[in-house]
Batch of 2 targets.
Target 1
Amino acid sequence: KAGVTQTPRYLIKTRGQQVTLSCSPISGHRSVSWYQQTPGQGLQFLFEYFSETQRNKGNFPGRFSGRQFSNSRSEMNVSTLELGDSALYLCASSFRSGSINEQFFGPGTRLTVL
Amino acid sequence: AQSVAQPEDQVNVAEGNPLTVKCTYSVSGNPYLFWYVQYPNRGLQFLLKYITGDNLVKGSYGFEAEFNKSQTSFHLKKPSALVSDSALYFCAVRDRDTNAGKSTFGDGTTLTVKP
């Protein structure tokens, strides 16, 4: 079974631009979560989607948004990029939403904002 | 609110020796607890989880973890460390009672196993 895939793997943008990251979960998984990983803040939860609905949201500004499609693929969008948005963005999928399920992570998208 | 503390940024052990990576948690309800490992330039890999039942949980690659409710701890252990175990380890908690999909992670502990 193929793992979680994320595209692109690397991205360089400049301040003020916007970016869209994509995540394809493991086949059959319907829950997708997004995390931001930085050396200073560690792993921070962005949001979780299940069956095209946002189930949980972390403490990030409205510039960070996401969506999930009917095939469970998910995208996250960051508008008006800031230098502090430079991070590794990780997507994780699980069979269904709910706290009992472990998550399977993709390799991440490394975003650099110049 | 939920939180996780990994009190050691770095753990160094010699190959063949036992290892322990510490984790304590705080959650308003009952916890589900997880350990993940991250290798350089890779995403996180699931190692093991505590849901209910036996306090000693066995996971991948010979790792195990002991849930201690009174001490709110979930330390990761391995009887005999390998050089290939060197990686970044994360403990995570979820609140069972809210059934929420949000995981709160610790800051990570870098494990270095020396030959």
Target 2
Amino acid sequence: AQRVTQPEKLLSVFKGAPVELKCNYSYSGSPELFWYVQYSRQRLQLLLRHISRESIKGFTADLNKGETSFHLKKPFAQEEDSAMYYCALGSGYALNFGKGTSLLVTP
Amino acid sequence: NAGVTQTPKFQVLKTGQSMTLQCAQDMNHNSMYWYRQDPGMGLRLIYYSASEGTTDKGEVPNGYNVSRLNKREFSLRLESAAPSQTSVYFCASRQDPNSPLHFGNGTRLTVT
């Protein structure tokens, strides 16, 4: 069965510190992985997807099939990065989300 | 361009009552989704519709039914509401599995 695990409910870092939000998955096929973000009082929106291998707002995520991980990283956190982050795993048309990690960046 | 529109925004039901949550998208997307969001549980997929005329169960379908009325509209029905269905419900749509999901603003449902 496919599953997405985000082990941290809350991650608190200081401004300028590196950030890594963890995501592990279990899936028998070739995974389609995404990171979504929900800023306060805004809609959930796509942050990035593994097929694009892009950097959005300074965030990157690399798919590691050996470790079945898709961790989200940013070298220098900003206060505006404070939000709820969800890792999501696609299986055909279904898209399942992890439980989310709340990132708090303090000055 | 409205994107994904959900109605109502808020609803309070008594146990056993029924209601339908409405969702419409104006982006000509093929696929539509219903999720519920609960504290500590993240987003859980209730039902989805890969294309007009098809619907499939997600992770937590029990107690819900859906209708893909046409390409634009995808409704979620609670036939007999239970307190465990108190949640925030999100509708979303996308063109295909490689495209990003576009979310609505959510419906906050309380069942007493």
